[in-house]
Design goal:
Largest sheet: 6 strands, antiparallel
Number of helices: 6
């Protein structure tokens, strides 16, 4: 695994760990996602209906049987899921695999141990140690129209306009930013064999592959990305310089934040710039 992939994976792992806070609540739809770090179960993040759609964290590990049961029930209760997929596996090198029903027990065994009574503390931005063996397995959500939405946020903090003035903060006090969402085919990232491809390339009888995506979907993806950036700042005191998220719309038209593709923390960027400046000064001396 290259050093760049390791850094991206480490940042994404830290970001997942900070989607929950005891100080603040984040209302966001996510698939039930189980995090593994360095071969051990770390925590489970999910959206709780009982708590008004808040992201919640379960530190006590599930058993293999309970994970299989939970993912199986979700797939069986989704009439739109005509495939045999139960889960999505995010590997340490950021590649993804769709996990079929019969493969789930074997995949879970490869992820590491699931102790019954051991608790793990929430990891966050300032935690020491390497998280480069981060993996995640999440409940499969069949994508409406076979589409995925990629939202990119870029902070413009420190940028200078042509008049020589710094770009001002917005009316909410947020740093200046740019944000955009593009639509892609689900199969542009997730590999499916020929027997499953028809479920993505040819729509379900109740959907049309030629209907334009409503502008409201793009706006909602942008809104949720900004919500996450704001949550990170207010609950953890962490600034986001760059963020790329993947969203998926279910057949019930609900939009889920499906994955963290990449993130650059402002603190990391400033630290790297300071180190680079220091090295340049040392070379000049």
């Amino acid at each position: 695994m290259s050093s760049e992939v390791e850094m991206v994976t480490d940042r994404c792992a830290r970001m997942w760990g900070m989607l929950w806070s005891s100080q603040m609540k984040l209302r966001l739809l996510i698939p039930e996602t189980m995090i593994f770090c360095n071969g051990e179960y770390h925590s489970c993040l999910f959206t709780s209906k009982e708590h008004g759609g808040e992201v919640r964290k379960k530190s006590r590990p599930h058993t293999f049987d309970s994970i299989i049961d939970r993912f199986t029930k979700r797939a069986d209760n989704d009439p739109s899921n005509l495939t045999n997929f139960l889960a999505v596996l995010v590997q340490t090198d950021q590649t993804t695999d769709l996990v079929q029903r019969q493969e789930l027990p074997r995949v879970l065994r490869t992820l590491g141990s699931l102790p019954d009574h051991q608790r793990f503390e929430n990891f966050g931005y300032n935690d020491p140690g390497s998280l480069d063996l981060y993996q995640a397995i999440k409940a499969y959500i069949h994508p409406f129209n076979g589409l995925r939405f990629v939202t990119t946020y870029q902070s413009r903090l420190g940028e200078v306009t042509q008049s020589g003035r710094r770009v001002p903060r917005d009316r909410h006090g947020r740093p200046p930013y740019s944000i955009s969402t593009e639509v892609q085919r689900w199969t542009s990232r997730y590999n499916v064999d020929s027997s499953q491809a028809d479920f993505y390339d040819h729509p379900h009888p109740h959907q049309t592959n030629h209907t334009p995506v409503p502008e409201a979907v793009f706006r909602e993806c942008d809104r949720m990305a900004l919500l996450i950036v704001d949550f990170m700042s207010r609950s953890h005191g962490v600034g986001i310089q760059y963020l790329q998220l993947e969203f998926v719309q279910s057949f019930t038209k609900r939009i889920f934040m499906h994955d963290i593709v990449d993130v650059v923390f402002l603190q990391d960027l400033l630290q790297a710039q300071a180190q680079e400046q220091q090295q340049q000064q040392q070379q000049q001396e």
